[in-house]
């Protein structure tokens, strides 16, 4: 399930690999974009990646996010079990990078 949307003037491209993204996760993506925009207004687009690796008890979920801003893009990813906590973790990593860039 890949999709693209325009959220508050920001193009969001969500790419998945054998994963269905629920409405709750889609809303969490938007909530996290709101958090990111508090730290920069110069976002060209955001790519979000969802992927599952392994099988059964070795299944790992992976979330990656690339925020395209003037200069160099910001990227973060994380691995774990649940999409929403992973999105929050990735967003925190992105915000930390943006703070370093703005200092």
Structure in words:
By secondary structure, the protein is an alpha+beta fold. It has a single domain, classed as Double Stranded RNA Binding Domain, CATH 3.30.160. The protein is 34% helix and 37% strand. The protein has 2 helices and 5 strands; from the N terminus they run E-E-H-E-E-E-H. Helix 1 (23-37) runs parallel beside helix 2. The longest helix has 20 residues, at 83-102. The mean pLDDT is 93.
Identify the notable features of this structure and list them briefly.
single chain, 103 residues, alpha+beta, Double Stranded RNA Binding Domain, five-stranded mixed β-sheet, 5 strands, globular, ribonucleoprotein, SSU ribosomal protein S30P /sigma 54 modulation protein
| Euclidean distance between termini CA atoms | 38 Å
**Count the strands?**
5
CATH class: Alpha Beta
Question: Strands across the major sheet, in which order?
Answer: 1-2-3-4-5
Determine the CATH superfamily.
Ribosome hibernation promotion factor-like
Radius of gyration: 13 Å
CATH topology: Double Stranded RNA Binding Domain
Counting structural domains, the number is 1
Q: Classify the secondary structure makeup into a structural class.
A: alpha+beta
Figure out the total of helices. 2
The backbone outline, from C-alpha atoms, is globular
Percent range for helical residues?
A: 25-40%
Q: What is the N-to-C succession of helices and strands?
A: EEHEEEH
**Can you summarize the main beta sheet?**
5 strands, mixed
